[in-house]
Amino acid sequence: MEHGNSTEVTEFVLLGLSQTWEVQLFLLGLFLLFYSLILPANVLIILTIHKDPRLGSPMYFFLANLAFLDICYCSVTPPRMLADFFSRRKAISYGACLAQLFFLHFLGGAEIFLLIGMAFDRYMAICKPLHYATVVNRGVCWALVVAAWAGGFMHSIIQVALIVPLPFCGPNKLDNFFCDITQLIKLACADTYILEFIMFFNSGLATFMCFLLLLISYGALLVRLRASSSLGKSKAASTCVTHIIIVFVMFGPAIYVYCRPFRSFPMDKVVAVFHTVVFPLVNPMIYTLRNREILSAMKRLLDRSGLWKGK
After folding, report:
1. Which end of the chain is more exposed for a tag (fewer CB within 10 A), N or C?
2. pTM of this prediction?
3. What average pLDDT does the structure give for the chain?
């Protein structure tokens, strides 16, 4: 559409991870192998927790929701990225770009709030064990999950509402394999200094504050466990350490992307791959591999289905 001497952008061209055909084929095979192994494993985690009554505690309820969120999150950008490996011109419409941005921040924000809910669950289990079953009941668990989704929605809708009024009149090339605010805002035909400042607070600073809050919370729990004489403190400490690992894995790339000026840096694409493709599916796997109860329940489920021949 013409506006004076400028043209409204109706699509964006994604430059992708590489312009070399051989490299694209290698990456396609690598990502397909990764998905064929890790994605079914995340589905298995959800099925195991759902089917095994011994995994009915709130901790496993939250883990199943985390795995579901990660699967959804990895359905936003990677499918299009894989399809684009076969395309010479990787174009995405303006509407699809905004939709990708919305769901990316919606699901990512929901994960952050869910991790806060999981930290609350661990606090009650360790610090208030006598009241744990009463306070963290199934209704409270569902309320925390709904609150996580609602928080992610509010965070994302703010991002989109700030992007929609921006004029885009060219250029229209995004030096990445998906649409995100850090790339998109640089193409706007307007002064975006104040907008970048607002988005830094909404994404960058908020993410960093949540990261610090979770680290302090789990650090305090580990200190309390160290001074405790309870029989289950070793298992509780192992669970807290696992949560800390997941916090670092999830928040590290997000802090790198959003807690800095919206400019291009050499490692941007590498970090983006780990942030949107690799780490989300790995998060539940880290938790599972460090938890014997889930591994045993998986073996029982596979044994009943005839896919595993246990001893």
Report:
1. C
2. 0.89
3. 85
